[in-house]
Specification:
Elements lengths: L10 E3 L2 H8 L4 E7 L10 H11 L4 E7 L16 E6 L3 E7 L3 H19 L12 H18 L4 E5 L3 E5 L8 H10 L2 E9 L3 H7 L9 H8 L4 E8 L6 H9 L4 H7 L4 H5 L8 E3 L3 H11 L7 E5 L18 H10 L9 E2 L3 H8 L8 H8 L4 E2 L1
Parallel strand pairs: 1-3, 2-3
Antiparallel strand pairs: 2-4, 4-5, 6-11, 7-9, 7-10, 8-9, 12-13
Helix pairs in contact: 13-14
Amino acid sequence: MPAKREVILQHTLSNDGEYHSMLNKDGLTVVDVFARWCGPCKAIAPLFRRLRNELGDDMLRFAVAEADSIEALKEYRGRSEPTFLFVATGEVLVKVIRGANGPLIEKSVLAELKQEHLALEGQVDRNEFNDTFFEELAVLRLAEEAAAEAERNKIVPIRKHLALVVVKPDVPAEQAAEITQKIIDAEFQVLKQKGMTLERDLATDLLSSLADEENFDDHVDLIVSGPCHVLVISKSGKTDGLITDLRELIGPNDIEDAQENNPECLRAEYGRDNIRNAFHLSSSRISAEREIGVVFPKFKAPWVEGTAPETQQAVLLIGPAFLEGKDGILEQLSDANARICRKKEMQLEADDVESLFGDFREQTDVEAIATHMTSAPSLL
């Protein structure tokens, strides 16, 4: 009886020869690129093992590669954020994911593997991914240098605050121009707009801030039922408070509240009930950035001059028990005008917990904290 062939769940690439040899093979290779001081992403390793075992597809390979020892990965050196390169036959980069987003990585593995099989059969062309991250980073660095220069005069370039407004299908299409003009007359700026019919996946992503509501499916059903008019809104001279001002113009989500307590608002005029309430408005600055990225993926907020605030820095650790609600926590920080300089999802070890909480042994049970904090990833 022939010996059972060993299945390698994850390859380790330590030099340029191993890297190029692996990526030139037929199929899809997903590479976890890591810095020597940081190590591979531990949170995603179990996902890779499960997918490799479940799919059993020889055209799919997972690998870890140390950027410090591979010249082709020199741009990724010194970075702590997990980076996953999806590379098709012939070293064709087809996707890049930054951050340990398990559901997104799994969805992308399945989609890109299917696409690669079709490409190998000659049915489709490979879509090479243009990774502009480092170009954008260079632009950001230039902006940061300009900000440092302007600090002496207390003037810095900052991103203008934006909001997304969706005029839902329950509003007749011919009234979209009328509503847009009313928004402009209220001294808001419409930076970008278009009419579009949303696919369900896109609508679900767009309305994800409502996902916990009982009637979430009804909201999605409505917004995909016909054409929407989507607008990116700003306000002259405004770097904060935009969504509060827009909320006052559009009115409360509850239609009865709008009609009784704010009869001049747009929702009181155009809405019919709590589902057919005419508008979707971003709930916060973070929501606005995410939603605009969904509908207008290439759109960037313009730079404006603003007053440099006096800043203080602090470190926030969101433990395993609260990680599921991290988006809500980050939104509250944004609403409080806090700026997230850097974030990283990481698995704490016992030594990490000791260094963080060791000074508080007399006030708390450090061992119990260590048991909890090392049980699952945290967000730093």
